[in-house]
Prior knowledge:
Elements: H1 16-20, H2 44-48, E1 50-59, E2 68-74, E3 81-87, E4 97-101, E5 111-113, E6 122-124, E7 144-150, E8 155-159, E9 165-169, E10 173-176, H3 192-200, E11 234-235, E12 247-248
Amino acid sequence: xxxxxxxxxxxGKITLSCRKGKGSIYTVNAHKRLGPAxxxxxxxxxxxGFMRGVIKEIAHDPGRGAPLARVEFRNPYKxxxxxxxxxxxxxxxxxxxxxxGKSAKLSIGNVIPLGNIPEGCIVCNVEAKNGDRSTLARAxxxxxxxxxxxxxxxxxxxxxxxxxxxxxxxxxxxMVGIVAGGGxxxxxxxxxxxxxxxxxxxRNAWPNVRGVARNPxxxxxxGGNHQHIGHPSTVSRDCxxxxxxxxxxxxxxxxxxxxxxxxxxxxxxx
Length: 270
């Protein structure tokens, strides 16, 4: 008797998006970065009074458009000093005193709970949840506008940099002012070399080749005598890796026409 061994092989290459999941050459270039930039850890001093810090340095962080401020605080419990890294607001300078807490005044660079900031004020480094040490409006030139306060529910309505409205707890903290480094994208790139060095500091994400420009073995959209996908670009949420490219689980496709109406966008009572 002759036994026949069938070898099942996977035809084609592993797609680029799947290769990025393994890490290797696609890891972030973080060895020269200054560290995570966050607000102070929320403590008793900030909840009831304020903490005073001094800006020791304004520094560039590789791979980040906004500068970072190194702020030195006194430890409230031990005889030592604590250095924090903040995303710098426009107008900060070395030697400036920064106040963080409930009773801090409304001044550029101070960190105050949203409920203590008047409506219409411009803020950055905003917390989305109480004590998460800032997650909103942290890119260079970004800011949020405080639309309204709802005293009954204890929530504050914000206008995000994207234009979307978001409601967050009024106890969340924010830094007064806009993030420094604005206008960065107004300078034209001019040549591919500038993009090369920009992304080299971030991660291996450039150049970005379109799927239709590739071969059939490399991408589901590749191949064909003209650059075309050849089948619907929408794919299921449950499709296997390698096939999951294009418009994943799209509810709708095409141009977005007309404005999107949001109920109670500028009316806090609704």
